[in-house]
User: Fold these one by one.
Assistant:
Number 1:
Amino acid sequence: MIKLYDFPMSPRARKARIVLAEKGLQYEKVNIDITKGDQKKPEYQAINPYGKVPALQDNGATVYESSIIMEYLNDKYPTPPLLPADPGQRARARVLMHLGDNAYDSALAAIVGEVFFKPKGQADQDVIAKAKQDLSACLERLERELGNNEYLVGAFSLADVCFATWAPLFGPLQVEVPGQCAKVSAWLNRLKERRGVKAAG
């Protein structure tokens, strides 16, 4: 039985939930409440020494880091495939996953840190402005990457998952997709309507 160590509000944990839903896999969910420091407890750090969510256990295998978990699930449970078969497109998907896990994730996490974790009225507006600028640069790149495709590398893939997980927070964070990124807006709306994305919560 697959066991997912999860925190419902974590966009990174949501990545694993989306892949599990897309593949129709049953799993046990173990809540790690990061607001109470559960991730720092020795019993959890024995599973994930980084002390972060998510982590996954599956028939003796223990995997952590959200994109590595996604790739593990895609390798172990290949139907439906969530990476292209073509090596060039597969590499391109991973390049876009890297963008999602780094520049995109970092920009949004910086805004979350100011908006949700600072006392009211104490958010650093310079930090927020810089993060929104970085985020806009990511979205403008995605506008180019999408071309005329419905998803980043043609069919829905792990690359799309890396960006879908943060989209529900755009409203609360007062983040807007730039007006010149109409394809990105349509793509994010398309992602929100996917069965697997909805099922992941």
Number 2:
Amino acid sequence: MPWLQVRLAISPEQAETYEDALLEVGAVSVTFMDAEDQPIFEPDLNTTPLWSHTHLLALFEADTDAAAVFAHLQLLTDAPLPEHQAEVIEDQDWERSWMDNFQPMRFGQRLWIVPSWHAAPEPDAVNLLLDPGLAFGTGTHPTTALCLEWLDGQDLKDAQVLDFGCGSGILAIAALLLGAREAVGTDIDVQALEASRDNAGRNGIADEQFALYLPEYMPAMQADVLVANILAGPLVSLAPQLSTLVRPGGLLALSGILAEQGEEVAAAYAKDFDLDPITVRDGWVRISGRRR
């Protein structure tokens, strides 16, 4: 069925007021959307930042009177309305639309990420079956792509791989499919560990090949390969710990790092690793090297 969509151009300071007012006048959903493609990268702890120019979208039943909605909003907020508009939009199969937009992706020479509902473009390639999750990593972000391409370029035969901040498990699973002997994944989010286990099962990875731990329960180890796609701040503060988790001669790949943060992160690891030139893509970087 069709819906009436109301759009308000607001500032972050107006967000709570207008969200409450829209729900008060009968909106069935309220969504915040970036009005100017402005990125927000590493928010402060316990904050949910909004873009400086935000659009607030609200859906109402199709027979709702838009003029009445705007009049009630003005009464509830006791202020002139910000820039606003209303339009009727047709309903659609949102799940089908979303699935159609997620296509197989190739990383490096051998590796493909393939959604479960799509045939593998190259059946004889290394095909990792992965359905998009909530926010745990699917290969679409440059940082994940940088790590996947790096893994594809390594000789992982019989290697033990540690995926620090494993999220969906995509990096560890890719390493196993590319020849690693075993992988260990750790994450502070229990749901991420569950997603990793589900994705491993989808790809025929046995539990004993891919051990998963909360950080406080992770056993002492020195991996042949460590990958960490998290954030620059934790990568810097955890550098002493992460360095000791790689055996001498072992490999390291780090991402989740903005280009302007690359030198700081690299400096934190330069004492223990012979680092490769920093690789940049779309404003993000990958730092890799070999443990001395």
Number 3:
Amino acid sequence: MDGRAIILDHLRENDEELTYIAKEIWDHPQVALQEEFASKLLADKLEAAGFTISWDAGGMPTAFIAEWGAGAPILGFLGEYDALPGLSQELTSQKSPIEAGGPGHGCGHNLFGTACMGSAIGLKSAMERQGIQGRIRFYGCPAEETLVGKTFMARDGVFDDLDAAISWHPGDTNITWNGSSLAMNSFKVNFYGVAAHAGGSPWLGRSALDGVMLMDAGVNYMREHVPPESRIHSVVTSGGQAPNVVPAFAQVWYFVRAPQRAQVEEMFDWMQDIAKGAALMSGTRHEIEFITGCYDLLPNDVMSNLLYEKMADVNDMRFTEQERQFARELQMTFPEGSVRRGFDWMQLSTSAALDPAAMEDPLWEGVYPHSPTPPLMGGSTEVADVSWITPTGQITTTCWPLGTPGHSWQTVASSGSSIGAKGMMFAAKTMALAGLDLLTKPDLLAAAKAEFERARAGRNYVTPLPPDARPK
């Protein structure tokens, strides 16, 4: 039996167990840096399969690395498992929280980490039986939703000796994700003023909230002069407690994003100057609290083409009419235009010509070739940091109905259903088969590395984190 058959047989035999693990993580959602249940469940399974486990990667108690094998090459699978706050949801097509205000897997990370674990163990089964040289690592990466996990792990060098990395993400179509993403900085600005009676003696106070508002005004004037693809978002996390008290403390939290890491750094420097000016104008004191930062994704065509080839090879995704009905019911709750937006995005992402009639099908089973000129993703991911350290490839598979809004209760419902489980297993098979080729075809891995070096063009990865930064 060849390696392909060994892997596929292993994953088919373990389909029920992997589906159970994903549902257990779905049933026990925990937010960033609190993923004790999911991390232990995955680590225990990997340890039972013969992997050596090391904890506290990147200084995070819920981060771990599982390794099996010896020598080179070294192949990494990037697993995630954090949930999102406020998205608790029952397994139903109508909004119905299990716990009011509780967390839920609104990005499908219960499927994400489980599929990567299944891939690693499935690949190990082929390596053992065929005597294939090399090492496999599963990276248990917490706190993706806050863009903390892989960034702090990368700072500590845990990806530095990888020859390649493979990842995926649940989605609404089966395609290689070969576009880039926005680099990002996340930081808070704390303003400190002087409290006073707002009616009786306001002249004795200095409003920290004025500092926040003046800074936000300055940032809004800055928007005209930054790259058009840039994004700046903010929330005022603290603005005072009562109108009749001049606020002594106020805080604003920013995400600043741009297509290139250097552009983010320039915008961040400018925003720090704006904060200084706001403090001077309001007579307050300010501090910058840096949370995290990440790079723009560095695509690799060799890795992308390999993953597409393996998706097309497996191509065994089939949904039942009952699953399609559940998907249609979910679609009926989407904001207007969501399905059309999903279709339009897919048309930009694939080189195939899509028939608009396909929007009538809520669950896409087909495998689509990726576009040579993919769109730029408006969001950010710390998979990007790994992509600047080693050649990295990733896919998306159909785990949700077409057009499902990201970070929504509808995503939670689909990620806990058999729809999500089928997408997860499809991803696991694809990634394991791609890993097999990378370990057994030296020319393929060499080509991925050569492209990686050309794309970096001498620019080495330098952590965006300050020396004193801590995961939070």
Number 4:
Amino acid sequence: MKLIIISGVSGSGKSVALNTLEDQNYLCIDNLPLTLLPALAQQMKEDPHYQQCAVGIDGRNAPASFKDFSAFLDTFTHNNIQCEIIFLDADDDILLKRFSETRRKHPLSSQQIPLSEAIEQERQLLAPLHHQADLRINTTHTNVHELRRMVIERVSRNAATPMSLALVSFGFKHGTPPGADFVFDVRCLPNPHWVPELRDKTGFDEDVITFLEQEQAVIDMRQQIGDFILNWLPHFRDNNRSYLTIAIGCTGGQHRSVYLVEAIAKRLQSAGEQALLIRHRERS
């Protein structure tokens, strides 16, 4: 039995996540009051139709109920139900833009409470869920299709699947990926951008790969990051982690970081790493 709780600030993509889980044959309930979680746990225990459930929880709950959130979760533990919390967030300016474009009303806003204040109030209310979340996804730079893919790849998977490891390339000039467990800065390596014939190419191209692999510093960085991941993965698995995200960043996210993610992924796959997700943020 498994329950997935989808929470987060309004406008961050909770409906998309729930709809995606529904497509993956989860029984989905949106805006479930926290006080009804124990009743859901009992229903899941007694009814075989409730083996996979997902619920959406947002700031429309009574404020006092958030203080008892840990106690509500204990109900699932006592009934041997695996519970996973996914928390979605986005930057304030993006949330404001989304509400403006969709013309939807924030659930906590009113004539007395402006939208910006409502967003902050909701974050404060949801702090207990954010703190206990198993996975946090910032959707500031994520479109609907990318969010759906992330939910399918990282949430809607067989329970027997081992810890999911994600390798992400990115450009520092666009900001670091929110939620990364480890961030490696490879801007110290020789940059193909300054070679005119390589500037418009990427880390996928053979001449860029040849350029980088002629540099000992690149080889050392590739080797040492790979060693770090392989050495520490067993420890994270022993600690019952479900997800681990490792981000590798260069200046623009086109050459060095793309090359290193691809090269390190091949090494991990050769070592038998099956649950490996590869994402090139600036190439999507």
